[in-house]
Write a structure and sequence with these properties.
The mean pLDDT is 91. By secondary structure, this protein is an alpha/beta fold. Bound molecules: S-adenosyl-L-homocysteine. S-adenosyl-L-homocysteine binds next to helix 5, strand 8 and strand 10.
Amino acid sequence: MHALKQANGKVYLIGAGPGDPELLTLKAARILRAADVVLVDDLVDRRILAHARAGARVIEVGKRGGCKSTPQAFIEKLMVRFARRGASVARLKGGDPFIFGRGGEEMEALRAAGVPFEVISGITAGIAVPAALGIPLTHRDAARAVTFVTGHTRDGRGPDWGALRATGTTLVVYMGVKRVAALVAGMLDAGFPADTPACAVQNGTLESQSELVTTLARLPAAVADSGIGSPAVLVIGAVVRLARRGAARAARRAA
Ligand code: SAH
């Protein structure tokens, strides 16, 4: 019996969606209902844990930049250890596990350990958060491509803004709100027009959502004045013109 259970251990790298707990996939909810262990990041809305069964062991492994943190290597060890004991492990991550979520690193660790795993995609913040403002990331008249970039890299180097400007892509910047001044300076240096529409959205899709819509040149000052902080995405490009200011909030009030 024990040996049989051991063979059934598996890790599910699950995307919990961008914030709103209803933006979770049916598959994620089904796997959560059966999981023995749930390892949850701090960006995941706690209402999602309502899908876990009563007896499941829930372990918080949040690691906000700079604060109290669970080292990545320890999280990976935990997943491997529980799976080897035969547990069904749900590793719940914000948004999509493979978009700036270290899901790739966790998958590599599981592969190296020979632990079976499955990836359950989630709706990434970079798609759902702009949508909450009525911003389509592509539009036949305004943007033929979209690029997700991180504002926070290991080596401190930003993307090649000149190349991005040349392609006319909508830019969605994750983890960029703290470094918004440096990021915008880089874009303006690379020739992005100062009046390119730009917005910042904190806690997108949640009741606590706050947003501002402005131009690229004014974005740093607008962010500072508004008090918008992490977690936030920045969206830069012509499609931001379609944002309905306050629309998301109005829609929630009406609901
Ligand atoms: N894997 C996640 C991203 C993790 S990186 C995903 O696919 O969404 C964390 C960054 O995601 C934050 O710094 C922020 O830029 C963005 N983010 C996540 N949730 C957000 C939300 N509800 N509103 C705005 N930005 C969010």
